[in-house]
Automatic annotation (TrEMBL):
Keywords: Membrane, Transmembrane, Transmembrane helix. It comes from the Bacteria. The chain crosses the membrane at residues 31-51. The lineage of its organism: Bacteria, Bacillati, Actinomycetota, Actinomycetes, Micrococcales. The keyword Membrane applies. The keyword Transmembrane applies. This is SbsA Ig-like domain-containing protein.
Amino acid sequence: MNREPSANPAALAPTADARAVRTAQRRFRRLFSATIAVLVLLVAGLAAANFNQGPRLASAEINLDASVMRGNPRLLLTANQPLAEITAGQVTVSPATEVSASVADRNLTVQFAGILRYNTVYTVTVTDVAATTQDATSTLEYEFTTPDIDIYALQRDSRAGDAGAKRPDTVRRTTLQGRGDGEIVFSAPRIQQYVALEDHLAAVTLAEDDTAAIEVVSFAGGDNVQVPVPGAGVIENLAASPSKYLIAYTFTSAPETAGRRYDRTPFVYDLTEYSGLPVEVTGVDGLPMTVMDLGFVPDSTSLVVQNTGQTMFLIDMLGDAVLTPLGEHDEMRGFVPGTRALVVADPDQGSTIDLADGAVTTLDLPPSLLDENAYPGKLVLLSEQGRYARLFLQETGDINQLASLIAVTDAGKSSVAFTPASDSSRVRDFCVSPNGQYLAVETIPAAGLGDDYPTLPAFTGMTTTLVDLDRGTSSRSVSGFLPDWCG
């Protein structure tokens, strides 16, 4: 019987290379499967961890410059997932600051009450923060540092230079953290007053015959700008809205002026206006107005003026320019720091006017510890809750000398915040910083001599001291007077 020859066993047996390939493939499949299993476990673990972990902070945002200039700044905290509701009790701030809180999706808004302190590290902590999708909670924390602030002062110099001419007056700029009197940003033979804007400085200068001019300096460089005025005369009541590039002032014509004569007529000059011409502020029915005082509402284009009949008006200079009456009052005393509440004084009592709705609130201020044994002077309201600073003159052992003191008073306490370094020095004026943190106090040394300027006269050797109202310290002072806070 014939048979087909059988296949060669050697040909059917796998080669060593083939076996190695199959072995490697099996190992790869096992390793791949194991890797996938591990990744699945990791993903599951991470998902479980994330599910059991509270929200995390993704970003934070705050306008630091505005936080020390305007009331009620906001910090926006954005989480990595939608948030459940937050109460103000879950939010703490160091240093202690009153806040409110609200939530919208992933955004948590922390709103501060009032204005923040300069040069201060704030830490905001929010506890027990939960997402809308699970119960796990976490703590969100954010730290920020508020900026320093520029300080300006006017230094008049009555000394004669090498050529015998009077040395120029200067406006200098420094900061709270700086040292010394800072850099010169403007100089002229005679400077009556100035106001500082964000990028400019406007100054009233005097000629030898005492006629006034207005000069605008750009901090970015370039030529100074001379603001057109109606002729020879006196300029007073210089004021500014720094963020809106507006200045205001009153002009009075010199006695020998021909034609129309101006009498404390208010003008507003817009640094951004293409025409470069000031605008006269007119009264009822567009008639010329004579004013006793004026000032800009903080961070706005609105101007408050007080006419000779003591009636006050609110006017939006870049709006409809309609006059809104604010009533008759004896005196304008500026604005409560961080608000648009105008402080006014009357013979019997002071009050505030809310310029948002015109509501008038009578001030019922607590007594000061110096009321019984000192003579009261200028009063500056520091808060809408009735905290105030007041200058007093107190009798001393010298019958020809009164000591200057500034006391700060609120419903809880009253204390002396400032006394001059020397008993023979006296306080000439003071004002509060835009955020209500500092008093700027002008003092005159005993040896100070009058400079005989026709408007806003001063004395040689004057110094401006900065008093931290919360800490009760006065470790910073600069030479000169008229700090821009008081403009």
